[in-house]
């Protein structure tokens, strides 16, 4: 059963399944006994949970594992579902692999297929210097390439799953390609290259767990954030391949300005057509994923209050 279906059931309903432990903390109740305070999630919903009178062994199990098989009872607090955990068990490696997709922890597309698409886009770049730059970043630099293809696109807001960064990057690049095909005033190679490198700093910004899911920010991620880290990585690659200064300057500006304005994290606003387009295409990919996820958490014909989007999202009944 998906967690999003819980609201269809009455108090006391027994819930059994493999779920992600998004947050776990041992606390002390008023009676002096320890309990586990959890946030349980899958790709449809996240639900608060309590594990009362938790033993030391069970606490360690929850602290050390991001995925567990749970037995719990459904309860409601102010009309919102919550779970009382009865027991937690470690799934087999096979069960974990099979559960990654249903738990919203894996990209919808196969990672190898996405890597092939990335390679094809890089090959299509006509400007030799830009093509060499992208090969240096996404192919020659093997440690980075391995991390990039499985890294999440965020800790929580959008594309926050294994392979999410690559999926988001390709969505932006594919939209850029489509727009270039409709408008010959765009520097295709600059926009495509900018689409591919705009979020490379997230590999160093986001800290991941053993599965590859984002669990927070690294020290340099907190202090510098991905735009600054991406600039540093791009500068190094530009020097490595000897990219023409004007091309490097244009790409750096695209990275710096892709959030659009200072209050969203960009120190400068877009001053190039390609930088302006990158900003909107990046936001388009993020909002598409966010709306799809938040609408999926509502019943057909109903609304879901989204903290991320700061509004209610409607799920049409015509599906």
TrEMBL record:
SUPFAM superfamilies: HD-domain/PDEase-like (SSF109604). Gene3D superfamilies: Hypothetical protein af1432. It is an enzyme of class 3 (hydrolase). Coiled coil: none annotated. SMART domains: HDc (SM00471). Pfam families: HD. The keyword Glycoprotein does not apply. Residues 165-287 form the HD domain. It comes from the Bacteria. One of its GO terms (molecular function) is hydrolase activity. This is 3'-5' exoribonuclease YhaM. The keyword Magnesium does not apply. Keywords: Hydrolase. Transmembrane segments: none annotated. InterPro entries: HD/PDEase_dom, HD_domain, HDIG_dom, YhaM_exoribonuc/phosphodiest. Its EC number is 3.1.-.-. The lineage of its organism: Bacteria, Bacillati, Bacillota, Negativicutes, Selenomonadales.
